[in-house]
């Protein structure tokens, strides 16, 4: 089981769990298995993907479009 923790710059956070996680750079979105909709990162947000042991295995952040 993987855990996705999305941290916002104002201190808020969201936590989602699933068996697999994917990141779409073009859309700035994260897909979590078992969720109906993707998580779209907003400006300043950072998402951490952690394994069952709590170790961070991936980090994604919103990057401004050029």
Number of helices: 0
- How big a fraction of the residues is strand? over 45%
Number of strands: 7
**Average pLDDT figure:** 94
Q: Measured on Cα atoms, how large is the radius of gyration? A: 11 Å
N-to-C SSE series?
EEEEEEE
The helical percent reads: under 10%
Please describe what this structure looks like.
The protein has 66 residues and is mainly β. The chain is built from no helices and seven strands. A hairpin with a 6-residue loop joins strand 4 and strand 5. It is globular and about 35 Å long. The protein starts with a strand and ends in a 5-residue tail after the last strand.
How do the strands and helices of this protein lay out in sequence?
Blueprint: E1 2-7, E2 13-18, E3 21-24, E4 29-32, E5 39-40, E6 46-50, E7 56-61
List keywords for this structure.
mainly beta; single chain; 0% helix; three-stranded antiparallel β-sheet; 66 residues; four-stranded antiparallel β-sheet; 50% strand
Give a summary of the structure in a few sentences.
Helix content is 0%, strand content 50%. With 66 residues, it is mainly beta.
